[in-house]
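DOMAIN: structural biology
WANTED: fold as tokens
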Amino acid sequence: MCVSKIFTTFAFRMVKNALLSVIFPSICPCCGQVVVEEEGQVCPSCLQQLPQTEQIQTRGNITEDKFTNIPNFVRGAAWLHYAEPKVKKLIQQMKYKNRPMIGYHLGKAFGQRLGEAGFMDGIDLIIPIPLHPKRLRERGYNQAEYIAKGISEATDIPMDHLDHVQRLINNPHQALLLVDSRQQNVSHIFAVNHPEELYRKHILLVDDVITTGSTLQSCIKAMIPIKGCQISVATVAKAH
């Protein structure tokens, strides 16, 4: 699929969601209040009260233990605590209740904080963790893509529209597996297309939630052969 068609498809979904929000006003998942489009999908009061980690301010020092054995890893950060009920509800609404724009607006807020902390310094390209085509068809959208789009707009760093990273295997949901099974579940499930186009670039991989880090680890390892490529990661929430 050509770049213009990918971008047009994403833009169409964004416009469609914006029009639907006029006809059917958004309801804040946290408090149930109507939210105007300019404020996003979460009311400003609830957004301000969401429990944040310290990982942005420390430029990811807390998460590095999950990736220390991966040579091209630079830094990583998660913004919110997933165990907090409001955060969990936001993520679940975004992923399973056809509210991808929650991801976009969370991504914008997340991106602003990452930019202010200097976390985005040196990043060349933002790549959302891809879904397998079958799961993408079932869900209708990739929530990580909406998060990445929000971060991109907040930081003026481009998001990948060329599908450089591809998910080869439609593996079971990680949430359904025991911790010991998660690493095996995501082993060798990613491939990189046209790696020469990513030579010497610093890539930010974006996902919604990090638990054990197995999915992100697998994606980073698929990118190790890319000459001079550096990888950082950012997720909206962390489970532990």
